[in-house]
Amino acid sequence: MKVLVINSGSSSIKYQLLDTDTESVMVNGLVERIGEDMGDLKNKAHPDTDGEVVTKLEQPIPDHSTGMRLAIDLITDPEKGVIADKSEIDAIGHRVVHGGEGFSQPTIIDDEVIAIIEACVPLAPLHNAASLDGIRVSMELFPDAPQVVVFDTAFHQTIPAHAFMYALPYELYENDRIRRYGFHGTSHKFVAGEMASILGKPLEELNVVTVHLGNGGSITAIKNGKSVDTSMGLTPLEGLVMGTRSGDVDPAVHAFLARNKNMSIEEIDTMLNKQSGLKGLCGMNDMRDIHDAIEKGDERAKIALDVQTYRNKKYIGAYMAVLGCVDAIVFTAGIGENDDIVRRESLSGLECLGVKIDEKINAQRAKEPLKISTIDSAVAVWVIPTNEELAIARETREVLSK
Ligand code: ADP
Fold it and tell me: Could you tell which of 232, 286, 389 is best to mutate to test the pocket of ligand 1, judged by most ligand atoms within 8 Å of the CB?
């Protein structure tokens, strides 16, 4: 099957065309700066092979529809493309951030599904509105291909009430569905599945703490293959210290800022989401820049690293307690896959809990799964590259084959 995976953001569209039989990527592309004076499109046909063809466009891209049409033109271009006609695409898989409590599985799109995604817009205003744009455009462009939605929240729908409830007046849950949902579910599920096959254990018997550290970050406790707790909450703001997001703060910070700094709710929200986290602490949100700055003696960069890795450790320790028995801790995403210092610091001092990493192996770079714990570590520690597009393509195929 050829599955087009679409991840539609407010001003961008990431897309990948995958052949699910060989699990190979046929095209990988990114449309950016939609709606700005000048837009960008980068399309890679046969990426990561000797035959890679890269095409870049710079032109105004007023809306998602124009962006998607430009991408399809390139995918089907006789010279730069990979297929002759868009009808060769068998199905479309959409990444949608928030499915609320409505979805625990990938789902074929119909009017009811669209209505539920719309109903979840208040829970993830930017993300879900952008996903709907992508879905509408795709339904127009591919009227005959089945469209499947894969929700970031779906994998976490197994979290029990004692972990997803906030201790707020109960009506806020009953009437407004205010609770912890969790995100990055596709990635946590994917790496847990990879871990199970590497260890030769059925997923249903695997207990694992998955640590997804990218620009956004979250940690999940997975018991017998199911998510039982996760660090993100009602929105992707809760939990870890991220690139620009604060993660956990005392909820009284909002009232303090409103009363004493005269800040509006909008300003506080923007500050916590866009001006906090690593960026707030040291002015940089890319871990590579932070390491360079630390080398040069930048003390705030060191504090940012310490605050981030300490928070990671607290969640890892908490989730080891939640699981009781832990088969493995798995690091993934941009920082998790590439940053040995963050991995080392996030696990330092956990030796008595059975977590020992081999510093030499940890310092290696690998595109393949890598075990970084010592032979005598009671808990295995792995680095496993995530692949959300492949996960969405697989799930799309699975739903359609049922
Ligand atoms: P997202 O999908 O959330 O945008 P990614 O998973 O691609 O994020 O991760 C992006 C982040 O990964 C960057 O902001 C950077 O901090 C970090 N990163 C990428 N490569 C490296 C590296 N080699 N060393 C350290 N950090 C890295």
Answer: 286
